[in-house]
Amino acid sequence: MTDTLTAPSWQSAVLESVPRGFLAHDWQPATGGRTFEVRNPSTEEVIITVADCGPQDALSALDAAAAAADQWALTSPRDRARVLHRLTDALTEHRERLARIITLEIGKTITEARGEVDYAAAYFRWYAEEAVRPHARSTPSPDGQSHIVTVAEPVGPCLLITPWNVPLAMAARKVAAALAAGCTALLKPAALTPLSSLVLGELAREAGAPAGVLTVITSSDAAAVSTALLADPRLRKLSFTGSTPVGRLLLQQAGARVLRTSMELGGNAPFLVFDDADLDLAVREAMIAKMRLGGQSCVGANRFLVQEGIADAFAVALAERMAAIRVGPPDREDTELGPLADHRAVDKVRHLVEEAVARGAVLIGKADIPDGPGHYAAPTVLDHVPADAAIMREEVFGPVAAIHRFSTEAEAMAVANNTEHGLASYVMTSHIDRARRVAARLQAGMVGINRGMVSEVAAPFGGVKQSGLGREGGPEGLHEYQQLKYLSMPGFHT
Fold first, then answer.
1. What parts of the chain have a pLDDT lower than 50?
2. Rounded (10°) CA dihedral 472, 124, 459, 260
3. Choice among 116, 298, 395, 480 that is catalytic
4. Is residue 183 flagged as an active site residue?
5. Angle between the 432-441 and 409-416 helix axes, to the nearest 10 degrees?
6. pTM here?
7. Does residue 298 carry a catalytic annotation?
């Protein structure tokens, strides 16, 4: 572990405030005192060790969640909302602390990390408000012989598996909805980024969440932990955000017990720019769609499909913007891009760029990166990328914009939909009829029209095809954690 006497003073203070155990009935060490290391991707140094839970620890957390389930389900929506409101306030109060933790564990710039904390707080605020708006109805049957009453009930204990790229906000999106619906939640963060989830568990307790309502399981062996939990009949729901291959495996395991599932899986988002688009707007929104989270986003623009009439101007302008990005230590206020998650991410970006160039793509813009340690990748623009290049099929998950030129709308649609994924898409055009027509034909769960960002707490987030099942966010996100019960009552006319 990094010597806290030689580390920056703010880093020492932040790390000392992170719980080291896992949260079940209370904070406790993993069986046998096992721990694993967390590294800072900007320095590659070990910064902390946390509890390395195994199956026995995971089942201990489920014991706590199951013990608390009935009482939390019977807690009034207003009282559940009060806990979520207090947690909203706590996230706001601890904004800087949490932002520094996110910067340390994943290398996100401090500016963007603060934005993530705000985004997480917004989810708790939204679901505090949704908790008191039950989804139910009461109506006479058509023949008047009975009365139909539907009641929304919590599904029960839920396993929430979150990714490393948005560690706090993705936990918030799941936890807030589950708790608002009356479910207890087992939060399993990614091994790369457990720290913000541990602090979230601490703040939830301080906000009044009873023991077992939110448990936090940190582990370097996600497969062993999830297998044990998914086999236990007390678990009733799985929500997973991550890669499509892992999502397929989890669906197979969940299917054996017919669990409710929500899956937000991989993406391969096309960003379509038509000749009639406003060039300045298109470039500005392209930078948002590409560079949010340093390109490490499932809804990030992966393929830039640009019509021939605007392609030259768009490529030059985008290359200038990308080459000017300031890459450096993420805790500096003027840094615009920090490191990627780990060396594997850097290697993947390098491979995809080299493969595209070998197939005829032209490298037209590239920013400088720092010398020395850190998992840094240069913001890069490739033009004339052929449709069969690997970067057109795979999520690059890094700061590379691949431009593929097209001539007709029909051609653009064929290329855009030529993927097994269907999470997000983006359309830049000045013609409203074209925007509606293209949006209707895009095989995606979300479409940004003249906007490079689709994430919004009040909107349903999710995809089609192999990008997942179900929706998070908005009122739809609450329904994912509820099951309907139908009561057949005597009719008023009998």
1. 1-6
2. 20
3. 298
4. no
5. 30
6. 0.95
7. yes
